[in-house]
Specification:
The complex is a heterodimer of chains A (about 550) and B (about 350). Chain A is an alpha+beta fold. Chain A has helices at about 60-65, 115-130, 150, 180-185, 195-200, 250-260, 275-280, 315-325, 325-330, 365-375, 400-410, 425-430, 455-460, 460-465, 480-490, 495-510, and strands spanning about 40-45, 70-75, 80-85, 90-95, 100, 160-165, 170-175, 215-220, 225-230, 245-250, 290-295, 300-305, 335-340, 390-395, 415-420, 440-445, 515-525, 530, 550. In chain B, about 70% of the residues lie in helices and about 0% in strands. Chain B is built from 13 helices and no strands. The chains are: A alpha+beta (about 550), B mainly alpha (about 350). The interface between A and B is medium-sized, with 25 and 18 residues.
Chain lengths: ~550, ~350
């Protein structure tokens, strides 16, 4: 996921570690699922859109996932891909550059029309069309499609790499092999939408969505309520619930209070329980068993721009790596963080447990070394370190405290830091402009569970070579490291590929130090006692199809 | 001894010496002695005074007290889940979720609240007295303009306007500056003072001694300063005291909603704000600073009430219970000026005769 302010969710990739203390499943006590009923959830802010070509935030994805399907999806609550609207996994030929998908027969949009290969060609081209103006326009992830460059610059009216061979066969050609292409296909940007519904909605498909999913949008009262109703013509296993009500304008804190008084089932599913309430609920015998938690696929770090003084000196960047008490950061998050000295998150393939190239202590620190390095860089009583500004986003409740703790740690090595907390959009603007921000507090949350997603968008030269909206916020570029990433991207040998990514990590976290990696978070969510079968998904912010409810309806909401 | 410790000690010494001389002077002064005697018999006012003196002393002496750094987070002392420590041996009043010492923050917070409260209050008094007396004394269009301006300022909702004002200042980096916050509060509070001063001056300026001064060709500014201002002393004393309660309240409100003093500065409003999210697991984070605001405001109000009663026993007899505060306006007043031209100044229980004249 792009640089999202609030911690997102994710479990483990197959075969990697799961924290022993964490359970990603609500205890169900062996009850049998029952059908019917309404689930009440909440969001703090109104959703920006329900158009899968536009939405690139966890709020939108929480609902989009219930309305649409793509060719592929994740199997159950794992990170393994399986066929969804595709009949089976695609046939890959031409050295990993051609993918052939067979479309399952009998999949219908909620208007009753059957889905064909043409719908996918239409949906994907619409999603990439500069006129749609979605976040994928111009090349992120999908730029690997043959002919996409011509399509983006207007030389072609369609993408030559997307071919409809017959109504049930879709062929996709890539310019170069890409091991994460199937993950890309499974992102919401790959969801299929019906052409006629888009046309009928005019410019407002964002509020009049139509797809093939288990639910359909029944009502959306702006700023108040979203109502989803069960889709009778859904091709997959039917959901247990008849209805999902999303109350809008409810802060996570209030949502949890409402849950405790029986007026809410699932407080905002894509946001971690606020720290103070987590400490309280996890000590409360009535509620502690209702908490589900799992490691997030994310990394939180300080970015230091090596092109800007005083961070042009590697000693300075290294000194900062010794200075930060990552244990304090974890305590601020109510203990829901794992100290991380590398660049990959624990559940990700390629993560090295206990990675510690600098020999840091349990808090991720060595204050004496930090002071020594600053002295080596020429700073001392005669030449104080120039005051720095730490830019961070205030959009989550703990941000001020996290930044203050960093400020305190740096003060201990003689570095004065001023704090500049910004709203998320302003933060993205400032940190995304080349060489504007020297020091910033960042988080990166996965788009899909592949290690390339933690390197290509945030640590490569091409990601640094932008004029605005950059996501390589350190504007770090090392040609040698870049070569490793290029080689790994299409490498079909899994072990060798992961090794290349590990080498990349050694360059970043053991040699160049554009970051101070700090921690990866643990997601914790809670549901009311009515809710059964609620699990956290490694990629999706919310899966509703496994949930059933018992007892009296929770909500006092208008529906 | 570091400079801030020395400064603290010096300030404390100056405060103590001036208090000593003030009390001494009051007890010796013919016209103030009765006020002092009445004040001494007000137990609530004395309690308020004692609390304020204690608070002021602690605030001044904070750098000298054996306290932890109010802004340092002792994360190493917190449990792994970051739960704030309850009051106990490690932290006497407990810690907040950043591992900061609540006792230390509360006492250092007294500094910020008192500085802003006093600054705002005294600037408001200065502004209110000048504008109010000028408007009343000169009357006519000047009165019209100044008082309508006062009305307009009074019509603004204080908090909303402060939000807008501080929002404008935000980009200039001036938000959170103690002087700016004091100025914003003063900008609203002076209106109340101006109205009451005007009402007072309107009645005083009709007095014979003012007319006599005018007849002698005394410059109006001199009349205001030398002949009228001394009669305003009771109001100034009472308003100067109760006003601090008001300005501290407003300061805490602004800081609580995030537009006053900025974190991590230790300030009671900021502390309540930071504590609210933890209220269910660490109620002391809200109770301690909240109680300090309550007690301080109460103390200043009690002291102000006591002073008013002491300065004007007649009004107490007439109005006590019916009217809170000093807002009785044109009535009770006055004593204290050591006579320049006024007739009848030889009265040794000042205040009474003025009341009679005003109401007669």
């Amino acid at each position: 996921m792009k640089r999202r302010p609030t911690a997102w969710l994710a479990v483990m990739a197959a075969g990697t570690i799961l924290l022993p203390a964490c359970a990603n499943t609500t205890p169900t006590g062996g009850e049998t699922p029952t059908s019917g009923g309404t689930l009440t959830i909440s969001f703090k802010d109104d959703l920006k859109t329900l158009d899968p070509a536009i939405g690139y935030d966890t709020d939108s994805w929480s609902i989009e996932r219930q309305i649409y399907n793509g060719l592929l999806d994740y199997d159950g609550f794992t990170t393994n891909l399986k066929a969804d609207i595709a009949e089976k996994m695609p046939v890959i030929t031409n050295d990993g550059k051609t993918y052939t998908f067979k479309i399952r027969k009998g999949v219908k949009f909620s208007n009753g029309r059957e889905v064909t290969a043409d719908d996918f060609k239409y949906s994907w081209e619409r999603m990439l069309d500069p006129k749609t103006n979605g976040p994928m326009t111009g090349g992120p992830f999908w730029g690997v499609l043959s002919g996409s460059a011509d399509f983006f610059n207007g030389k072609a009216t369609s993408i030559s790499g997307i071919k409809v061979l017959d109504p049930n066969t879709l062929e996709v050609d890539l310019d170069s092999p890409n091991q994460s292409f199937l993950n890309i296909v499974a992102m919401p940007f790959g969801f299929v939408v019906p052409k006629e519904a888009v046309a009928a909605a005019g410019t407002d498909f964002a509020h009049k969505p139509m797809g093939t999913g288990p639910f359909v949008l029944d009502k959306w009262t702006a700023g108040q309520l979203i109502v989803l109703k069960k889709n009778p013509s859904y091709f997959g296993t039917k959901p247990y619930l008849n209805e999902v009500d999303a109350q809008i304008g409810v802060t996570p804190e209030v949502a949890i209070l409402r849950m405790q008084s029986g007026q809410m089932d699932l407080p905002q599913p894509d946001i971690n329980i606020p720290s103070a309430q987590y400490v309280q609920l996890s000590a409360d015998p009535k509620w502690k068993n209702r908490i589900v938690s799992t490691p997030n696929v994310d990394i939180w770090y300080l970015a230091m721009n090596p092109n800007m003084k005083p961070f042009d000196k590697v000693e300075v960047r290294k000194a900062f790596n010794y200075a930060i008490n990552k244990g304090s950061q974890a305590k601020i998050l109510a203990g829901r963080a794992v100290i991380n000295n590398g660049i990959q998150a624990p559940p990700m393939p390629g993560y090295v447990p206990n990675y510690n190239p600098l020999g840091l202590d349990a808090n991720g620190q060595n204050v004496q070394k930090a002071k020594d390095l600053l002295a080596q860089a020429g700073y001392g009583p005669g030449k104080p370190f120039p005051p720095q500004t730490l830019v961070y986003t205030k959009s989550n409740a703990d941000a001020d405290r996290e930044a203050a703790a960093v400020q305190q740690d740096l003060a201990a090595i003689g570095v004065t830091v001023n704090l500049q907390g910004l709203a998320f959009s302003a933060f993205l603007d400032v940190t995304g402009k080349p060489n504007t921000t020297a020091l910033s507090y960042n988080g990166w949350i996965q788009d899909f569970p592949d290690p390339s997603d933690f390197i290509d968008p945030i640590l490569t030269c091409s990601a640094a070579n932008v004029t605005a909206n950059g996501s390589n916020v350190a504007f770090y570029c090392n040609k040698t490291a870049d070569a490793l990433a290029d080689k790994a991207r299409g490498d079909t040998n899994g072990t060798e590929r992961l090794n290349l990514y590990k080498q990349f990590q050694d360059v970043v976290a053991g040699q160049d130090f554009p970051w101070v990696p700090m921690y990866s978070t643990v997601e914790a969510n809670i549901s009311s006692t009515r809710v059964h079968g609620y699990h956290l998904h490694p990629v999706w912010p919310l899966i509703v199809t496994s949930i059933w409810v018992t007892g009296a309806a929770a909500s006092a909401s208008a529906s | 001894m570091t400079p801030d410790r020395l400064a603290a000690l010096a300030m404390f010494a100056v405060l103590m010496v001036s208090l000593f001389w003030l009390v001494r002077w009051v007890r010796q002064s013919l016209s103030w002695r009765p006020v002092w005697d009445r004040f001494r018999r007000e137990p609530l006012a004395l309690a308020g005074l004692a609390f304020i003196l204690l608070l002021v002393s602690v605030a001044i002496l904070a750098p000298l007290l054996p306290l932890r750094d109010p802004n340092h987070g002792y994360y190493e002392l917190l449990p792994l889940n970051g739960r704030p420590l309850p009051p106990g041996a490690t932290f006497l009043l407990g810690s907040d979720a950043n591992g900061r010492d609540l006792l230390s923050r509360t006492l250092w917070g007294a500094r910020v609240s008192l500085i802003i409260g006093c600054l705002a209050n005294f600037s408001a008094l200065a502004l209110g007295i000048s504008l109010g007396s000028v408007a009343a004394y000169f009357g006519g269009w000047m009165d019209m303009v100044l008082m309508r301006f006062t009305d307009i300022m009074m019509a603004f909702p204080v908090v909303l306007f402060s939000i807008a004002l501080i929002g404008i200042l935000y980009s200039s980096g001036l938000h959170g500056n103690l002087l700016v916050i004091a100025a914003v509060i003063a900008l609203f509070y002076w209106t109340a003072v101006a109205r009451i001063v005007r009402a007072q001056v309107l009645s005083i300026k009709e007095k014979e001694f003012v007319e006599a001064a005018r007849a002698l060709g005394t410059h109006p500014i001199r009349i205001l300063a030398k002949h009228i201002f001394p009669h305003l002393m009771p109001i100034i004393i009472v308003y100067g005291t109760i006003g601090i309660a008001t300005t501290i309240t407003v300061e805490s409100i602004l800081s609580f909603i995030g537009i006053g003093v900025q974190p991590p500065t230790a300030d009671w409003g900021v502390m309540v704000n930071e504590g609210v999210t933890f209220m269910q697991i660490a109620p002391w984070l809200v109770i301690v600073p909240g109680l300090m605001i309550l007690l301080t405001v109460l103390a200043f109000n009690l002291l102000g009430d006591g002073l008013r009663d002491a300065l004007d026993p007649r009004e107490r007899a007439l109005f006590r219970g019916a009217i809170g505060g000093v807002a009785a306006g044109g009535g009770g007043l006055a004593m204290g000026q050591r006579a320049t031209l006024e007739p009848g100044v030889e009265v040794t229980v000042p205040g009474t005769f003025e009341v009679e004249e005003a109401s007669g």
